[in-house]
Amino acid sequence: MRNLLHTCSSYIAMLLLSAFVAVACTPSVPSDVIQPDEMEDILYDYYISQAMAGQALNQKDASYDRYVYFSAVLQKHGVTEADFDSSLVYYYSNAKRLHGIYSSLSERIGNEAMGLGASVSEFNKYSSLSESGDTANIWQDATSLLLTPYAPSNKFTFSIKADSTYKVGDSFLVNFMSDFIYQAGTKDAVVYVAVRYDNDSVSTHVTHIGVSGVSRLRIPANDESKVSNIDGFVYLNRGSDDSRTLKLLFISQMQFVRFHKKEMPKAVQAKDSVAAPVADTLPARDSTAKATVIPHKAGQAVKVNMEGADARKR
Q: ∠ CA 145-148-152 to the nearest 5 degrees?
């Protein structure tokens, strides 16, 4: 019994020693750098202040308000702009430290996103969707992420494997909120999606994001093949500005919605059998439009002369 207690005590002592050594060997943040917890609080307050400044009706007023609010945030935390900028340089060059701050910050900002300009109506119709059904949210990754223009936190990749619930004629919608938190520099993020079909063909779809708000990328249906897998990424461009000022892109409420093609009822098919096929959903037509382009098949389009149709009706 005494030997067992001695063995257990020795084992516990070794664990405590290992933990102490691990902590001791972890380099601490230099004393002249804003510490991680405080840096997170500053960035959070900065995000809130920039969202408030963005409510200005005049863009010139918004730019002025952003700087005023930024100065107020630094004053609140007793930090100078020079201290803030030099600390950013440190964290940009220490990816692990930066990742820890942004992971926590991403969660905090995510809880505030809907209350700072996110339109509830834009997302509620998809937020309760399951992974199956005629309309389904197939996104299984993190719904919020934070990017900087510097590797490795400048790119987020994803991959979605199709299963038996996918059908020929499926279309998709990438839907999310984007918030740029920039002191200066050009805002440019790229969303890229590559869809591979069961006949080994691939369709690629790209959109650029340069402003905060609702961001979307629509992927039209392929009426001949079934999706086998979807790959893509979100990438924040560094641009020509090499300064180490604050540049963050926060993405929240990420959704990847799949739509099954709706089959036309037989009664409608019989009634319209002599008419040209029309897509299930037509875009809204404005009074000045001369033609509407309707998806027909991958890589092709059919033009319908709306002016001529109106003339026939008259």
A: 90
Question: Do the beta carbons of residue 149 and residue 237 sit within 8 Å?
Answer: yes
161 Cβ contact partners less than 8 Å away, ≥ 6 residues apart: 229
* Residue 278 vs residues 282, 291, 298: alpha-carbon distances, Å: 8, 14, 16
Cis amide leading into 277 (omega within 30): no
DSSP labels for 276-288?
PP--SSPPP--TT
CB-based contacts of 211, cutoff 8 Å, min separation 6:
178, 180, 187
> What pLDDT, in 10s, does the model give residues 41-78?
999 898 888 777 766 556 666 667 778 888 999 999 99
How would you classify the pairing of strands 145-147 and 247-259?
Answer: antiparallel
Separation CA 297–CA 312 (nearest Å): 27
Gap between the Cα atoms of 30 and 134, Å rounded: 55
For residues 188 and 209, is the Cβ–Cβ distance under 8 A?
yes
The identity of residue 162, as a single letter, is A
Q: Report which residue type is found at 198.
A: D
Q: How many residues does the chain have?
A: 314
Segment 207-224 mean pLDDT? 91
Measured CA to CA, the distance from residue 219 to residue 257 in angstroms comes to 10
Residue type, 158: F
